[in-house]
């Protein structure tokens, strides 16, 4: 029985070692699977990083043309600003001329009313109306001159407006600068 007990004991020990070895192999295999998955994930991330790096390098190649476009467009922007400043001055001058025209028309209102009244009252008022009529004629001549000058200024303003419009359209095509 002793041999038989030893035989059973050795089988039990062998079976325990076999189970331990198989368990170790299963754990080792599982760890190899996890390690393999991690390695595959690392390879995918490295490929993604490589693509991102390629995209970044390609983007860097576009920086120089963008900088050149900005440098080329800057004089146009400055020209637009200059045109806007000139247009502002022209509009201020136009406003002053319109004020003058308004004052001239307002001052012509009273002599015109006197002329109408003088025409209705007849001959005694005709002598008194001659002076206001001369003023009216002078004011109308001034108003005509101002209207012609206003027309020229409006034509000039239209030309500047079209220039500004063209330059603003060009400026809208330029890329935005970030600070």
Task: Give structural notes.
- The longest helix has 120 residues, at 2-121.
- Helix 1 packs antiparallel against helix 2 (123-173).
- By secondary structure, the chain is mainly alpha-helical.
- The chain has helices at 2-121, 123-173.
- The chain crosses the membrane at residues 9-28.
- Keywords: Membrane, Transmembrane, Transmembrane helix.
How would you concisely characterize the structure shown here?
Keywords: Membrane, Transmembrane, Transmembrane helix. The chain crosses the membrane at residues 9-28. This protein has 179 residues and is mostly helical.
Low-confidence runs (pLDDT<50, min 5 residues)?
none
Cα-to-Cα separation, first versus last residue: 94 Å
General shape: rod-shaped
Number of helices: 2
Task: Please outline the helices and strands.
Layout: H1 2-121, H2 123-173
Helix pairs in contact: 1-2
Comma- or semicolon-separated keywords:
mainly alpha, rod-shaped
């Amino acid at each position: 029985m002793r041999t038989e007990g030893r035989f059973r004991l050795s089988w039990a020990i062998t079976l325990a070692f076999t189970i331990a070895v198989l368990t170790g192999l299963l754990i080792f295999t599982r760890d190899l699977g996890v390690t393999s998955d991690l390695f595959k994930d690392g390879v995918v991330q490295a490929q993604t990083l490589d693509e991102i790096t390629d995209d970044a390098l390609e983007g860097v190649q576009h920086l120089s043309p963008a900088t050149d476009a900005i440098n080329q467009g800057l004089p146009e922007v400055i020209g637009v600003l200059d045109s806007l400043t000139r247009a502002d001055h022209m509009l201020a001058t136009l406003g002053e001329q319109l004020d003058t025209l308004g004052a001239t028309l307002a001052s012509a209102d009273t002599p015109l009313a006197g002329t109408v009244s003088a025409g209705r009252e007849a001959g005694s008022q005709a002598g008194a109306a001659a002076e206001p009529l001369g003023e009216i004629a002078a004011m109308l001549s001034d108003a005509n001159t101002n209207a012609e000058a206003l027309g020229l200024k409006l034509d000039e303003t239209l030309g500047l407006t079209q220039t500004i419009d063209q330059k603003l359209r060009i400026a809208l095509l330029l890329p935005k600068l970030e600070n």
